[in-house]
Amino acid sequence: MFHTSQEVIQWIQSQINQGMKLGLERMEWFMEKLDHPERTVRAVHVGGTNGKGSTVTFLRSILQTAGYEVGTYTSPYIETFEERISINGEPIPEADLVQVANLIKPLADELAETELGAPTEFELLTAIAIYYFGKLHKVDITIVEVGLGGKNDATNVIIPFISIITNIGYDHMNVLGDTIVEIATEKAGIIKNGAPVITAVSDLEALTIIEEAARRKRSTVYKLDREFSYTDLGPSDDSEFFSVKTTYHTYSVLTTTMLGKHQIENATLAIMAAEYLKQFYALYIEEEHIQAGVKNAFWPGRFEVNGQIILDGSHNEEGIKSLVDTLERHYSNKKLTILFTALEDKPLEKMINTLDALHAKLYFTELSQPRAAKAEQLFELSNAKQKEIVINWQSFMTEKQKEMREDELLVICGSLYFIKEVISILK
């Protein structure tokens, strides 16, 4: 019997030794035992390689501004574990988490004794989230972020109103496959019968996979730059300005403080999703809600400007390219110092070579985590003229902040796990 959130979290995290088990058999078992809470979750399902969390944030902010109670299930967390299950941006209350965990725990023990085996950490948390939003605290709408891939991801037991596939790139290739076609097939697995899919995927092979999956499911595809589009109106020091044209409405000038052209794209996906919910599910969403929701959206650790420090959880090649593009778009007149580390299963050479092109001074460090790459390994992959290894990154940050001039910025990037640790130090 659990009494505190910490006890629940320790139990969930103790399942990390179960590793990764793709497939829906254990989740379907849970749903049957729990009287199918997934059938009562009013959901939007968000998948893709990059931009999932930001798209969730934009859509939540729009819906919340319109007066709706919005649940979100996201990963990973930045500040507290509980924030992965949130209502209107606030983490699940301790009493609710404990109540649901006490219901799930005996079922998890029972499942472990079957031929299906024990649930994973992610499956446990997903079961808790779905039961919470489907039975215990029914919100107006829940936005669910895919954990990994889509087709075999634990979240794929839900039946959403709409699905969003942000983009498709090379990430988690050890699990999802070596080719865009294989990865796209996994991502397209979240498309459900009759539920439309909204996507920014531009790769023709990947788009073909998505459209074929949608045709089989009798689902409509709304594609960026075809059924809806945005126009980049340019940046200011702390904002992006853009316009959006959807199937239903045109927004002449929108503003977001989430910097980068990729964030304009993510906001546009969220706007198209909000428009669809308005048209087909009678949600009361007016232009003023779109305007304010997009402007007020904030997602920590995604090009987060903290004085002269920029925190960015870019953790794959596409993410690093977006980071570099955003730095050049907003801070081309600044002298940059990069502090970088990453997990060893990432495309390290491509990520580092992209950073090399900035002609900044690169410092390489490492995380105290089993999957972390070694600083020396990262250092050797770099062709930068100015590069160093720093093992004690905390001391490095402290000293760097003291000595930085007005025209300098410290950019910390490469892993959301790293950003999480940095934010805890900064706070």
Describe the structure in your own words.
It is a single chain. This protein is an alpha/beta fold. The chain has two domains: 5-296, UDP-N-acetylmuramoyl-L-alanine:D-glutamate ligase (3-Layer(aba) Sandwich); 304-426, Mur ligase, C-terminal domain (Protein-Tyrosine Phosphatase, Chain A, Alpha-Beta Complex), CATH 3.90.190.20. It has helices at residues 5-13, 25-33, 52-65, 94-112, 121-136, 173-176, 180-187, 204-216, 261-281, 287-296, 317-330, 348-356, 375-381, 393-403, 416-426; strands at residues 43-47, 70-73, 85-87, 90-91, 141-145, 162-165, 197-199, 221-223, 229-235, 240-245, 250-256, 304-306, 309-312, 335-340, 361-364, 387-389, 408-413. Strand 7, helix 8 and strand 8 (221-223) form a beta-alpha-beta unit. It is globular, with a radius of gyration of 21 Å. The mean pLDDT is 95.
CATH architecture verdict of the largest domain: 3-Layer(aba) Sandwich
Briefly note the CATH topology name of the largest domain: UDP-N-acetylmuramoyl-L-alanine:D-glutamate ligase
Looking at CATH, the homologous superfamily of the largest domain is Mur-like, catalytic domain
The total tally of domains equals 2
H/I helix tally: 15
